[in-house]
Amino acid sequence: MAQIDNQIANKSEITTPIQCSAFKFYEVYRKEAFLLPRISPRNVKKIELVPPTCSWEDKVGSRKLVHFDEAGLESFKDEVIEIQPHAKKITFKVLEGKMMMSFYHSFQATLEVTEGSAKWTVVFTKKNALCPNPDYYLQRLDSVNKDINTYLLPSN
């Protein structure tokens, strides 16, 4: 655990085995996030760019609004804060989120893709000790990863 602004930062991670190309998998998040509602409709209902972002290709400072449900109760706005293309790694910081940010002061998620796996690491600070760990969000990310893997696998 690390100290951030006098608060304890917690860390959790989940790794999803993948059989598809690591490069293609990474590119879905980096350049084709608009496909997520079609690839994983159970998990991503809608995704949109947030001004001044005007391209789906992520760059540091790019922002998106992601909706997990139809009513918009479970949604969040994120910003890309770091990209390492050669390592197939991208880090997002959650700026806003109705449910998520009611539990956490800060929430940051890093995706790292290697041949055979896609790992999400989240670093977060809880608003208080009664707030849950982000297992719900990690399971949702795992489910999206599985859907992307299936989408990218060649048809038999």
Automatic annotation (TrEMBL):
<dbReference type="InterPro" id="IPR023393">
    <property type="entry name" value="START-like_dom_sf"/>
</dbReference>
<protein>
    <recommendedName>
        <fullName>Bet v I/Major latex protein domain-containing protein</fullName>
    </recommendedName>
</protein>
<dbReference type="InterPro" id="IPR052006">
    <property type="entry name" value="MLP-like"/>
</dbReference>
<comment type="similarity">
    <text>Belongs to the MLP family.</text>
</comment>
<feature type="domain" description="Bet v I/Major latex protein">
    <location>
        <begin position="7"/>
        <end position="155"/>
    </location>
</feature>
<dbReference type="Pfam" id="PF00407">
    <property type="entry name" value="Bet_v_1"/>
</dbReference>
<dbReference type="GO" id="GO:0006952">
    <property type="term" value="P:defense response"/>
</dbReference>
<dbReference type="InterPro" id="IPR000916">
    <property type="entry name" value="Bet_v_I/MLP"/>
</dbReference>
